[in-house]
Amino acid sequence: MTIMSRVAAFFRSRWLSMVPLDRLFWRDLVVVGTAINVASSVAALILLGLKLPLALVLAVHFAPVPYNIFLTFAVWRTAGKSSGTKASLMTLGATLWLILVVVA
């Protein structure tokens, strides 16, 4: 399997709710998503410290936003196929997480 097909399979499985909600929320969104955002922010701060153009700094800082939106929608879609308090809390958590990582 090529890298491109593995990446496509990753996104497809999350969009089609083929990944368990717990894994999608905790591992993909909270752990990996947050790590990507922290790394992007650190890289942007380093670029800012090197006095590189502000447009480049902002592009690096906000680069994960489409991925963040994708993960949030994937959680919403997967939680929508479940019922109960846990699914509702994960939907709320994903929404709050998205606001936090975009604003911070």
Describe this entry's structure for a reader.
- By secondary structure, the chain is mainly α.
- It has one domain (21-103).
- It is built from 5 helices and no strands.
- The longest helix has 29 residues, at 21-49.
Short note summarizing the structure:
With about 100 residues, this protein is mostly helical. The protein has helices spanning about 5-15, 20-50, 55-60, 65-80, 85-104.
Number of strands: 0
Shape: globular
- Assign the structural class, choosing from mainly alpha, mainly beta, alpha/beta, alpha+beta, or little secondary structure: mainly alpha
Overall average residue pLDDT: 96
- C-alpha-based Rg, rounded: 15 Å
Distance between the termini: 37 Å
How many helices? The count is: 5
Low-confidence stretches: none
Helices and strands, in order, run as HHHHH
Largest sheet: none
Task: Tell me the number of structural domains.
Answer: 1
Kindly state the percentage of residues in helix: over 70%
Map the helices and strands.
Layout: H1 3-15, H2 21-49, H3 54-62, H4 65-80, H5 85-103
Helix pairs in contact: 2-3, 2-4, 2-5, 4-5
